[in-house]
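Lab notebook, design round three. We kept the backbone fixed and only want residue identities now. Task for the bench partner: fill in a sequence for the structure below.
Input structure tokens:
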């Protein structure tokens, strides 16, 4: 048993446990057989493994005997000389929770355990919580997920080590360890008897109205008539499936990296053609990986949700979205500005599907300013971009100005410009694009031709003339014939966007 509890997270020290800063470990102890044995094992090994144990108990307020359980665990911690942490939950509130009693209790339980681990663990050490799940629990988990229709990741069961994120109000992630996961319950019971340990019995474990109890009390004993070692066999199967799940996950992660156009805190953008070339199964796997990169809770999306997304992504045409997903995420089909390639963007609901390729006027700027009048010389900062306007003699321009390759710089005849202003495209705005022989074009049609994603259009900067309503420049895309520089031009109005740090 001691060897089974010796997970790699608790390696023996090389100096007999004399390291300066021991590793805190919060041990979840209900008072039942399994958690009492886990605590005893870790207490015996703590000096050699340099662990500082803390005992944590959650009173769910669901049974008359729960107060007695709490008192028992408090006394046990005291006898071992260990710090004791406890919380009493509101049983009525757990019953009323819309997620269901068991889910609500589990959420509250792990929130307390993770908060406790964060509180007792000084940085840079990793907060650790140890729980007493064993091979029998693993067998129950596998059967339960099988009858619920879980996929491979679910059938892999519980892992010896799991990282818990977003469980304690934005605190550090917590490492959840299960040192007894490979131990049969018979070995745990034998250990307790040999060491004279006392524990509490939970009478609710006999209630077969709960799915786990039905599996433990009825289904597994019946299966044991076919295979007497059924619990260990199922636990071993879960381990094999975990290995296969990890192998497929690594393959999905590699494909996701290959298809990734960009990734930041707000979005992950993938090549649409590459994504559509995958099988439906591989597409589901890549989408799960990508979504989990944005929100860890997205790892729990079920088969139906992922399959529906994979199908929709495969069928969507043109620009599309945003379409809602769980956990505050959405998906959109957009065109990547530089390459012109169509992409899938998985992004937060309040974020653009793809970053603007240059300056962009955000909603708060548009609401506050509307339009900013520009003079012969002007400087306007918009977030990380700076707009500068200068008036120069034609002879003062660079020799190669007519071959300007910078899409964010424009040269206009100052005499043809009345009252210029910075704004965004508005319904009905038209432009007389350079080289179109005086024909006008709707700015919205220009956006469509240049494959500018609809969400980007709302903040796309436009320079227009308030004196006559002429659009002078759809920034980065097209300038107007109306104010082009000619041989008759004397003064040139130079308008340029550049990153603020370059000024």
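Proposed sequence:
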């Amino acid at each position: 048993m001691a060897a089974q509890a010796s997970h790699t997270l608790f390696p023996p020290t090389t100096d007999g446990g004399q390291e300066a800063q021991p590793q805190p470990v919060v041990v979840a102890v209900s008072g039942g057989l399994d958690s009492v044995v886990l605590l005893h094992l870790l207490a015996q090994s703590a000096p050699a493994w340099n662990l500082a144990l803390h005992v944590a108990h959650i009173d769910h307020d669901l049974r008359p005997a729960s107060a007695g359980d709490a008192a028992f665990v408090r006394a046990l911690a005291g006898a071992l000389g260990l710090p004791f942490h406890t919380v009493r939950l509101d049983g009525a509130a757990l019953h009323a929770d819309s997620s269901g009693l068991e889910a609500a209790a589990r959420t509250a339980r792990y929130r307390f355990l993770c908060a406790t681990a964060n509180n007792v663990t000084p940085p840079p050490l990793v907060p650790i919580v140890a729980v007493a799940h064993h091979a029998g629990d693993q067998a129950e988990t596998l059967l339960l997920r099988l009858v619920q229709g879980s996929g491979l990741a679910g059938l892999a069961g519980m892992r010896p080590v799991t990282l818990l994120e977003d469980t304690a109000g934005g605190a550090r992630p917590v490492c959840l360890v299960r040192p007894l996961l490979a131990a049969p319950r018979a070995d745990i019971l034998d250990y307790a008897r040999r060491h004279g340990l006392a524990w509490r019995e939970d009478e609710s474990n006999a209630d077969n109205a709960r799915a786990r109890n039905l599996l433990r009390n009825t289904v597994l004993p019946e299966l044991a008539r076919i295979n007497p070692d059924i619990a260990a066999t199922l636990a071993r199967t879960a381990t094999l499936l975990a290995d296969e799940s990890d192998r497929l996950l690594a393959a999905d992660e590699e494909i996701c990296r290959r298809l990734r156009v960009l990734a930041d805190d707000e979005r992950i953008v993938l090549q649409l053609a590459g994504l559509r070339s995958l099988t439906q199964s591989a597409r589901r796997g890549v989408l799960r990986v990508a979504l989990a990169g944005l929100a860890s809770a997205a790892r729990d999306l079920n088969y139906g949700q992922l399959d529906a997304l994979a199908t929709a992504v495969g069928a969507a045409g043109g620009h599309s979205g945003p379409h809602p997903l769980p956990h505050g995420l959405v998906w959109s089909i957009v065109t990547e500005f530089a390459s012109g390639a169509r992409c899938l963007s998985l992004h937060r609901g309040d974020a653009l599907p793809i970053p603007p390729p240059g300056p962009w006027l955000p909603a708060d700027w548009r609401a506050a300013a509307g339009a900013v009048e520009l003079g012969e010389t002007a400087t306007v900062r918009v977030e990380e971009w700076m707009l500068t306007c200068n008036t120069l003699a034609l002879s003062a321009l660079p020799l190669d100005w007519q071959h300007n390759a910078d899409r964010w710089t424009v040269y206009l005849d100052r005499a043809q410009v009345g009252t210029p202003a910075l704004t965004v495209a508005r319904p009905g705005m038209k432009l007389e694009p350079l080289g179109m022989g005086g024909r006008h074009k709707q700015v919205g049609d220009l956006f469509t031709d240049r494959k500018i994603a609809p969400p980007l259009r709302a903040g796309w900067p436009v320079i227009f003339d308030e004196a006559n309503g002429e659009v002078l420049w759809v920034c980065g895309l097209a300038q107007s014939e109306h104010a082009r520089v000619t041989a008759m031009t004397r003064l040139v109005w130079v308008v340029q966007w550049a990153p603020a740090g370059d000024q």
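Keep this in mind before ordering anything: The chain has a mean pLDDT of 87.
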